[in-house]
Amino acid sequence: MGDGVLWASFVTIGILVLANVVKMIPSILMAVLIHRLVSDKWQYWYRVLLVVPMIVPGLVSLFIWKFFYDPNIGILNQFLDATGLKSVLVAVDGVFGWGVFQEGLQIAWLSQPDLIIPSLIFWGFPWIGAVGVLIYLSGLQAIGTEIYEAAELDGAGSWHKFLNIELPLIMTQVRLSLVLLVIGTLQGFGLQFLLLGTNGGPEGRGMVPGLWMFNKAFIAGEFGYACAIGILLFVFILALTLFNNKYVRVDK
User: What is the third-level CATH fold of 4-56+130-245?
Assistant: First the structure.
């Protein structure tokens, strides 16, 4: 209970879980847009385009993102320099006194302690997960056309259809995605391991429970301690799953 690194890692993973919940929104919106396409042909091809990136191994995607954040040749810094957005960040830094963005110095996204968590949150942009979109699509396609016809007779617009028909009727799929998201985020550490190393980056800002468990087991050789962390993770995952099942209502 006195392990400061462990509890700090739970704070980090809590932030990432909340961020990932927000990152579900683009997938839901993408599924709705595909579902509303009139042409069945275009619906098919959009589904194919979503599945194609799944062929790429996850390890390759992680290394691409590591290159994306590279301070010298990374695409992100080149984009900020080309668009002048870096000057905006430097000006904002001057106002708030962060000491992170400085003129004439490349932004070290994975080396600056204060930028590590924002970098982990931004990872995967635009946050459209193929599996999530396909799950939501399956729920949307189960909605009967008579419901849409009734809504149109009542004068409902696109936004009202989304809020009052589509979103409530895919809450089963949303709840499933939430459970998978919580389990995957709490258990995962591959992203932090490949981007930041075994120590979670400078000052351990990117340390998560899974990575700390890996360190205890395979670096420190404390397998019993690692197992205890695993049991603690199980308790947290179980508690969040029960919370999700209780409060994410599926009233049709």
Answer: MetI-like fold (1.10.3720)
